[in-house]
């Protein structure tokens, strides 16, 4: 069973034609893109860094374009990622673009232990949505989800 869908495009910072710009971080895990949304200080960069330590490639930290259900690295995006309390780190191998497979929202907690699937839409395209505020051990589960999917029970 699945939860209703919400329009994630409304959370874009700006728009250029069909392209939406999000103040967000984004990574790719085995060719599948994850968009990490949340307010400043919510842990977007920290989650991206944790995912990178498990093999993800950075698309962009602190700002990313979404067009035609693809995450796209901005041309002028730095090749760095913020590590709070340490400084700016070189990101290593980057990913320029990946199909949007997952949106992680760090502004809202998930109240259920085993939640029904949630969905969001961007320009009418459905994408899985994970609510994750306050979750500190999220990266391994997200990697597993992006690599192998989720059981429907």
Automatic annotation (TrEMBL):
It comes from Gymnodinialimonas ceratoperidinii. CDD domains: HprK_C. It comes from the Bacteria. GO terms for biological process: regulation of carbohydrate metabolic process. This is HPr kinase/phosphatase C-terminal domain-containing protein. InterPro entries: Hpr_kin/Pase_C. It holds the Pfam family Hpr_kinase_C. GO terms for molecular function: ATP binding; phosphorelay sensor kinase activity. The lineage of its organism: Bacteria, Pseudomonadati, Pseudomonadota, Alphaproteobacteria, Rhodobacterales.
